[in-house]
């Protein structure tokens, strides 16, 4: 009996050993890894059939005419609002019957009033939005039915629906009162911030997919740059002394690491920017005037691990993508120790992050390709909206009940547009 | 009205971003001038004047001293002093005294409950010694190595074969120069390597000490014939030496890919990756760095332009990427000016096809390797010497073109040698140290070579043969300044 027991134990050990070897071999040869966030393995979900969206027909002064006035709106980082409209018009989730719609979309391009330099002016945006909402509430009964709780709007501007580029002013203004109940799809995301509403969906800024595709280099090119960053450290025009721009974080990066050979950082604008990112292991994505930046999208597409230096930031599709496992988060107060932090990450963790980044569904989820492809950012937005269904009973108001005040907000916003 | 005025101010800004500090908007927004506003304006003007006199904004200093004990947002970690900071931004401060915001609270407590992020001016944190730490640099390099190893595993060659390198050499002044270059390239190769060094004139301590430093697996053999002085004879001897080395490969039954690395060539690291793709017999493009300065004044502009492009030897492909012929070296532009002896001061030219542009599978050399293709000649059956490895194959069309069908130049050929009678200290160690130095003008060369015609400009650029390799390898990053 004794012998048989030992033989049994011996077989168990052998089996465990073999299984371990197999798992090790398999893990070793794997080049990507599945991504599943807090909402589960939802990156590759198909939203078609799970929700229906009704697109309001607004007069062209809210969308087409604005675009005609300035075609640059199609290429800047806020172009998501225009492409989302185009996507929804031809998507299978669109329904022409508003009675069966779960969500209502208002196509108003609020971020298309550009300066000669190409930056959007948000001063007319609140009035534009108000005017659009007035229109839909008077022509269709669906707004009043819920006071906008089953409507969603795209507000990709710097601070979302606060409609200002400057943070103090944006906080003063707060989210436009009429949008208090609606779902906002925006690029800005920071925890405990006035301009991020509960239940908003964060999306990545628009980055042109074609342009990035044309700059791909062979994957076997060895990654020889440790940390890479190109951009401003001091915004001399608007913050000459430093300390305001990026809360001093970018300046701290420069002052601490400008002579460090591991950090390839500068303010130059090289033509090989995309190629260089593909040769780097880490890419810094510090905050600027707003915490988000297209660098995150570029880093993900080019397989460079993003080092996010922005306290309390909420990254795109945070419930579908587990960003802590993919990127490195560094507090702004820890920037002087950035080199210690990055070199103390164990190589297996780095390799795992690279595997996660190599996952094609991860790269797809950050892009807005035309025409839309399965798994891209448009579909992630729809997935996010679908995850919020079915609507809560409190969404529907009783007849005659009013929650929002039409005249709430700043006096300047009440002027008709 | 107000809106357009604001817009006007944006359009007037020269900078890229149009974000400005707060009080500009607030001051233009408020239409009513309260006593408090007047007071702030007066104070603001006063402080502008003081700053103008002092030369820097002192508001930060004032607030630093006033609020340095407060717990809110001055961080305890080491901090560049405000005065230093102010001095550093002297230029900008003088400019900004004319603009707004001299008196503003540096800490605007506009936070939402529970948020630890504050809007407003923050300090720029700099650690006490903001310079690279050597231990961290080493750790970072280890990380980079690991990442690159993983990349090679995933995207590189799956079953890497040993690289068998054959180098003919002999002890001479420039041997250290050339051989070290080749040695360092071979030390960087990520695959297993065997280095067969064939030395003319027998094994010498010079060569042995040089290649001993490499840490590579080397086979150092001697060839008992001395290197002759004329280039023709040299090439012949080198071919003999290479075939000798191939016999060693056959005897030892070495398995891998045989490549010829002459000690004066420059190798790209991609070459070693590319030759792993060879099946039996491959060829790639070799760039010839012969100095093509045609020094007679009769050469016209067009000819200059044509010959200023680097000539390339190697396989030529047709449009369907099949081997169609060979690019060889055109000696016509050099007619009459070709070096014959080793110390001639004119251009040294390569032969039609250099040995170094070919690679072969070592199994082709084995006596009975089983599945050898029938187009390979047996080395022992060679009638005479062969000028290039093409002499080993019966049918030149079986050669596989490598490097994107010869479009990529993976090797550069150059020959530079010192005078045949030049002397150098053995192993380049001067022992005992020199005591007497004599200015060189007083030491003429013992026997000058036959003088060339007076209108020859001596060739200068060739004296520096070691050129930086292609930038695909790890190069040191140049420091960027802002």
From TrEMBL, chain A:
GO terms for biological process: glucuronoxylan biosynthetic process; plant-type secondary cell wall biogenesis. InterPro entries: Exostosin, Exostosin_GT47. It comes from the Eukaryota. It is found in: Golgi apparatus membrane. It is a single-pass type II membrane protein. Residues 50-345 form the Exostosin GT47 domain. The keyword Transmembrane applies. Keywords: Glycosyltransferase, Golgi apparatus, Signal, Signal-anchor, Transferase, Transmembrane. One of its GO terms (molecular function) is 1,4-beta-D-xylan synthase activity. It holds the Pfam family Exostosin_GT47. GO terms for cellular component: Golgi membrane. Residues 1-23 form the signal peptide. Belongs to the glycosyltransferase 47 family. This is Probable beta-1,4-xylosyltransferase IRX10L.
Automatic annotation (TrEMBL), chain B:
It is an enzyme of class 2 (transferase). One of its GO terms (cellular component) is Golgi membrane. The chain crosses the membrane at residues 37-56. Keywords: Cell wall biogenesis/degradation, Glycoprotein, Glycosyltransferase, Golgi apparatus, Membrane, Signal-anchor, Transferase, Transmembrane, Transmembrane helix. InterPro entries: Glyco_trans_43 (IPR005027), Nucleotide-diphossugar_trans (IPR029044). One of its GO terms (molecular function) is xylosyltransferase activity. Residues 441-482 are annotated as: Disordered. Its EC number is 2.4.-.-. It is a single-pass type II membrane protein. It is found in: Golgi apparatus membrane. Residues 469-482 have a biased composition (Basic residues). It comes from the Eukaryota. Coiled coil: none annotated. It holds the Pfam family Glyco_transf_43. Signal peptide: none annotated. One of its GO terms (biological process) is glucuronoxylan biosynthetic process. PANTHER family: BETA-1,4-XYLOSYLTRANSFERASE IRX14H-RELATED, GALACTOSYLGALACTOSYLXYLOSYLPROTEIN 3-BETA-GLUCURONOSYLTRANSFERASE BETA-1,3-GLUCURONYLTRANSFERASE. Involved in the synthesis of glucuronoxylan hemicellulose in secondary cell walls. Belongs to the glycosyltransferase 43 family. This is Glycosyltransferases.
């Amino acid at each position: 009996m004794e012998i048989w027991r030992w033989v049994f134990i011996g077989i168990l050990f052998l089996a465990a050993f073999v299984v371990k070897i197999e798992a090790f071999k398999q893990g070793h040869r794997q080049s990507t890894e599945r991504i599943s966030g807090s909402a589960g393995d939802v990156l590759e979900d198909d939203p078609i059939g799970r929700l229906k969206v009704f697109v309001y027909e607004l007069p062209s002064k809210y969308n087409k005419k604005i675009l005609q006035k300035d075609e640059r709106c199609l290429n800047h980082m806020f172009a998501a609002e225009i492409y989302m409209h185009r996507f929804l018009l031809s998507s299978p989730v669109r329904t022409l019957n508003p009675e069966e719609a779960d969500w209502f979309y208002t196509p108003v391009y609020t971020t298309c009033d550009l300066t000669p330099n190409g930056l959007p002016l948000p001063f007319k945006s609140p009035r534009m939005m108000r005017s659009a909402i007035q229109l839909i509430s008077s022509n269709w009964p669906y707004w009043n039915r819920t006071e906008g709780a089953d409507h969603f709007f795209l507000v990709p501007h710097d601070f979302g629906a606060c409609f200002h580029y400057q943070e103090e002013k944006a906080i003063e203004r707060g989210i436009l009162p009429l949008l208090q109940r609606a779902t906002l799809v925006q690029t800005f995301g920071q925890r405990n911030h006035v301009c991020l509403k509960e239940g908003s969906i964060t999306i990545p800024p628009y980055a042109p997919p074609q342009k990035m595709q044309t700059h791909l280099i062979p994957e076997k090119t060895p990654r020889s740059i440790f940390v890479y960053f190109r951009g401003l450290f001091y915004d001399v025009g608007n913050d000459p002394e430093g300390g305001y721009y990026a809360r001093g974080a970018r300046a701290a990066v420069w002052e601490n690491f400008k002579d460090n050979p591991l950090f390839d950082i500068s303010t130059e604008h090289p033509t090989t920017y995309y190629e260089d990112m593909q040769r780097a292991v880490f890419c810094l994505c510090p905050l600027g005037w707003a915490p988000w930046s297209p660098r995150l999208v570029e880093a993900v597409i080019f397989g460079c691990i993003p080092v996010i230096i922005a306290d309390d930031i909420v990254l795109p599709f945070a419930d579908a993508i587990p960003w802590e496992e993919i990127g490195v988060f560094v507090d702004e107060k820890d920037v002087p120790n950035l080199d210690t932090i990055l070199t103390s990450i164990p190589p297996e963790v780095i390799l795992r992050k690279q595997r996660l980044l190599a996952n094609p569904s991860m790269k797809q989820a950050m892009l807005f390709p035309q025409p839309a492809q399965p798994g891209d950012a448009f579909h992630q937005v729809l997935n996010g909206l679908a995850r919020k269904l079915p609507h809560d009973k409190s969404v529907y108001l009783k007849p005659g009940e009013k929650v929002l005040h039409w005249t709430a907000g700043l006096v300047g916003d009440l002027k008709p547009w | 009205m107000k809106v357009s005025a604001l817009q006007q101010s944006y359009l007037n800004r020269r900078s890229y971003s149009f974000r400005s500090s707060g009080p500009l908007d607030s001051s233009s927004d408020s239409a009513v001038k309260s006593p408090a506003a007047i007071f702030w304006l007066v104070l603001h003007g006063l402080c502008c004047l003081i700053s103008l006199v002092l030369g820097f904004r002192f508001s930060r200093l004032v607030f630093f001293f006033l609020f340095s004990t407060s717990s809110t947002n001055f961080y305890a970690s080491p901090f560049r002093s405000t005065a230093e900071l102010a001095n550093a931004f002297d230029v900008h401060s003088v400019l900004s005294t004319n603009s707004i915001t001299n008196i503003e609270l540096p800490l605007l407590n506009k936070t939402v409950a529970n948020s630890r992020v504050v809007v407003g001016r923050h300090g720029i944190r700099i650690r006490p010694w903001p310079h690279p730490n050597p231990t961290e640099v080493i750790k970072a390099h280890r990380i980079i190595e690991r990442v690159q190893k993983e990349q090679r595993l995933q995207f590189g060659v799956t079953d890497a074969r040993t690289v068998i390198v054959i180098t003919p050499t002999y002890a001479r002044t420039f041997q250290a120069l050339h051989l070290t270059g080749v040695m360092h390239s071979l030390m960087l190769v990520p695959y297993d390597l065997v280095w067969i060094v064939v030395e003319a004139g027998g094994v010498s301590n010079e060569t042995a000490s040089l290649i001993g430093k490499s840490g590579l697996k080397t086979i150092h053999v001697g060839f008992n014939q001395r290197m002759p002085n004329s280039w023709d004879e040299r090439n012949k001897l080198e071919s003999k030496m290479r075939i000798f080395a191939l016999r060693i490969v056959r005897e030892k039954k070495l398995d891998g890919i045989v490549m010829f690395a002459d000690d004066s060539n420059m190798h790209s690291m991609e070459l070693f990756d590319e030759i792993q793709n060879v099946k039996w017999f491959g060829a790639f493009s070799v760039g010839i760095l012969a100095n093509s300065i045609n020094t007679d004044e009769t050469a016209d502009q067009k000819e200059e332009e044509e010959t200023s492009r680097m000539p390339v030897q190697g396989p030529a492909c047709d449009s369907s990427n099949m081997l169609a012929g060979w690019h060889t070296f055109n000696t016509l532009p050099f007619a009459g000016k070709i070096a014959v002896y080793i110390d001639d001061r004119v251009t040294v030219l390569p032969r039609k096809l250099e040995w170094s542009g070919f690679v072969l599978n070592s199994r082709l050399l084995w006596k009975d390797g089983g599945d050898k293709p029938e187009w390979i000649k047996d080395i022992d059956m060679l009638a005479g010497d062969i000028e290039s490895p093409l002499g080993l194959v019966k049918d030149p069309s079986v050669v596989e073109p490598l490097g994107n069908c010869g479009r990529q130049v993976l090797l550069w050929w150059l020959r530079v040698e010192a005078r045949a009678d030049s002397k150098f200290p053995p192993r380049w160690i001067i022992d005992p140290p020199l005591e007497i130095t004599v200015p060189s003008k007083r030491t003429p060369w013992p026997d000058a070579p036959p003088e060339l015609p007076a209108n020859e400009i001596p060739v200068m650029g060739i004296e520096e043969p070691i050129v930086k390799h292609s930038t695909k390898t790890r190069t040191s990053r140049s420091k960027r300044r802002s």
